[in-house]
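Saturday, quiet lab. Running sequence design on the structure tokens for the scaffold JK sent over.
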């Protein structure tokens, strides 16, 4: 076999291994970053759900306060 062909084959094999190694490492890094982003999105979504629940609770409390104020006003009117 000619030396040039052997050098070409070795060069091709080295390039292929290097390229595949780079692709694998890049894929692992991309997957890791996607997982981290998914965790952040989950935390954000949990915060949104909790905020929505708090807003509902605040509306109930506001209504309770409104009812209590009406009852107090009614009691004050009875005393007058």
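Result came back. Writing it out in full:
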């Amino acid at each position: 076999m000619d030396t040039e062909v052997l050098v070409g084959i070795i060069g091709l094999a080295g390039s292929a291994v290097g390229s595949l190694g780079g692709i694998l490492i890049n894929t692992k890094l991309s997957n890791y970053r996607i997982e981290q982003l998914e965790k952040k999105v989950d935390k954000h979504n949990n915060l949104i759900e909790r905020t929505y629940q708090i807003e509902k609770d605040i509306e109930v409390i506001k209504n309770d306060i409104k009812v209590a104020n009406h009852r107090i006003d009614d009691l004050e009117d009875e005393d007058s």
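Notes for JK: The chain is about 95% helix and 0% strand. The helical segments are 3-79. Ask whether to fix the surface positions before the next round.
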